[in-house]
Design brief:
11 helices; 328 residues; alpha/beta; seven-stranded parallel β-sheet; single chain
Length: 328
């Protein structure tokens, strides 16, 4: 089986590529001319140079592949030009599906996110059937992922063989960027967490998440989406786990929402607009945090054989990897 993988130079994609290689698949990995190749340096794989914003390069790179794993995405909670994110996440997904159709690919597994789910403030766990619309999406990242997911679902229900997976918040090693989740770990290691906000996330081991992608390839139903989740934890619980792993103190001061929002406004204005760098605190991130992003993976458990595992080992691997690679 020749598998085409986008995003293999990144966090989740590199794990997906490794699991495929372990299962004996041949790999063709989409890379940009400017890509950092550290995450795939040890993998036996073809490299096809292309760009999600260049449909011709995608179609050419995908020729002859049997299955596609579209993992690549622009994952940032702040961007100076939001159109960049829509070009990569929405139009890039359409380009992948168009190329897969032209190349008669057997199945496409599209990596979405639980960010597209409908979260409530009443404590109920979100799942694939929770009511949601584009108007519920905060910020260009969530909006672009929601729109891209709709493109994939419509393709799957319109005759193409497309399965959508929705990882919660992956954590583990090889988060080279790092992602916003990885930055929580790095900031904690750098002692930049003097306080916390009352929010919550579902953390999933990135290695398990990668195996869930293969389960979706083998068992998923076309046009359906599957949450790949782990533990539902408050931010305070996550920081307490990191404290246990590292021996560093966990913050005890909880910041009120209004103060956190004010910090986001100032950081975006000064760091983002004036200095042109990505701010550590963003308005969208604070607004998202008003609802705990707790989810249920029951559908994936029933249909894919998904099993939730504790995230302590993944958090420890993340800490050790960031320390070993000079992030902290």
């Amino acid at each position: 089986m020749l598998a085409f993988v986008t995003g293999a130079t990144g966090f989740v994609g590199s794990h997906v590529a490794r699991v495929l290689a372990e299962q004996g698949a041949d790999l063709r990995l989409l890379v940009r001319a400017s890509s950092d190749l550290r995450n795939i340096a040890s993998l036996k794989a073809e490299h096809a140079v292309g760009d999600l914003r260049d449909p011709v390069s995608i179609e050419k790179a995908m020729a002859g592949c049997e299955v596609v794993f579209h993992v690549a995405a622009d994952y940032r909670l702040w961007v100076l030009d939001p159109e960049e994110m829509y070009r990569a996440n929405v139009y890039g997904t359409q380009a992948i599906l168009d190329a897969a159709r032209k190349n008669a690919v057997r199945r496409v597994v599209y990596t979405s996110s639980v960010a597209t789910m409908g979260f409530s403030s009443n404590g109920h766990l979100a799942d694939e059937s929770s009511p949601v619309s584009l108007e519920n999406m905060i910020g260009p990242y969530k909006r672009s992922k929601f729109m891209a997911e709709q493109v994939a679902i419509e393709a799957g229900r319109g005759g193409m063989d497309v399965v959508v997976v929705n990882p919660s918040t992956p954590v583990g090693e090889r988060d080279i960027k790092p992602t916003p989740t990885g930055r929580i770990v790095v900031d904690f290691l750098k002692k930049k967490f003097p306080a916390y906000v009352d929010t919550g996330l579902n953390l999933v081991d990135v290695a398990e998440c990668a195996r869930g992608h293969l389960a979706a390839l083998e068992k998923g139903r076309s046009g359906e989406r599957y949450i790949l989740g782990g533990e539902n934890l408050t931010l305070k619980q996550i920081l307490d786990k990191l404290a246990t792993i590292t021996g560093l103190p966990s913050p005890r001061i909880r910041v009120p929402y209004v103060m956190a929002l004010a910090t986001g406004v100032v950081d975006e204005m000064v760091t983002g607009r004036i200095l042109g760098r990505e701010p550590r605190a963003t308005i969208d991130a604070v607004r998202m945090g008003r609802k705990k992003m707790f989810v249920s993976s029951a559908k994936a458990e029933r249909e894919l054989g998904w099993k939730q595992v504790p995230v302590d080992r993944a958090l420890r691997r993340a800490v050790e990897w960031f320390q070993a690679n000079g992030y902290a």
